[in-house]
Amino acid sequence: MQAVQRIKAMPRELGNEIRAPAIISALHTMVEELVMNSLDADSKRIHVGLDFDLYGIEVRDDGKGIDLTKASSTSEGNFGEWHCSSKKMSDSQDTFGFRGEAVAAISTLADVSVTSKQEGGTTMRRGSSSPRFFPPDIDGPSGTIMVCSAVFGKLVVRQKQIRASKEIALTKLFLQKMSLLNHTVSWELMVRADNATKTVFSQRGAESVSASFRSLHGVDVLNNMVPVEQKEEGFHVTGLLSPPLPQFCHWTKEYQYFYLGKRWMRGKDVVSVLMNKAY
Fold it and tell me: Of the chain's two ends, which shows fewer C-beta atoms within 10 Å, N or C?
């Protein structure tokens, strides 16, 4: 009788090589991945631009910058180490984004150009597209400008399905939720359509989550929120809850924000599903 072979754990290095890439399905998901990478770079200022005239996205930050000498183009898979301070960080499960793999994924759907500068270094560029929302150079000691142009240019049908109002609303909602999770970061969202540019969301970094919440929803709402905090068996739960009063209750779940381990829980996540059932 042939001996039964036991299942062995896969080496971490092999797992990193075959792990699933970032899934990019819309403009706002591109923004989400690029913003996550900016947060991984310890950015304190993140600016986002949506260009519906040319189907473009721009994300500018003041993070640690990228060593562009390690990648000759943004389509390289090993571009995953961008924005990460070390290989150890790029392999860590503690990062917000896909450790840069989203850049390679986005480059298959758009023309991606990168301008970056590390502290003490010089500005480097990859790609030919110039930003339309921001100056072309890094004005601080470090930072990165990502320019994604002709998004879904090779998928004409998909590009025609882009709805500006929907993409703006979803991007704004994402930045608002991330501003509560990363309250020390300053945020800005600009939109260009019909040859006109406007700012649709702007928030400066705050000293606390409560201050960030006040900036989003107003002091009257904040003053009526009930702070909660509970520690038990390795779990630490904190947050703000509205009292059961008509002026603060909502018939929809639009204003429910859930975070777990410094990550925003989406509608299909386990925690959100359980809380939605309770709601």
Answer: N
End-to-end alpha-carbon separation of the chain, Å?
A: 56
Match 């945020």 to its residue by tokens. 187
pTM above 0.85, yes or no: no
CA dihedral 152, 156, 160, 166 (to 10 degrees): -20
95: buried, middle or exposed (CB in 10 Å: 19+, 13-18, 0-12)?
A: middle
Q: Which pair of tokens denotes residue 81?
A: 């180490």
Angle between helices 209-217 and 164-181 (to 10 degrees): 150
Q: What's the rounded Cα separation, in Å, for the pair 279 and 276? A: 5
User: Length of the chain in residues, anyone?
Assistant: 279
Beta pairing partners, 191: 50, 198
Tell me if 107 sits within 8 A of 74, measured CB to CB: yes
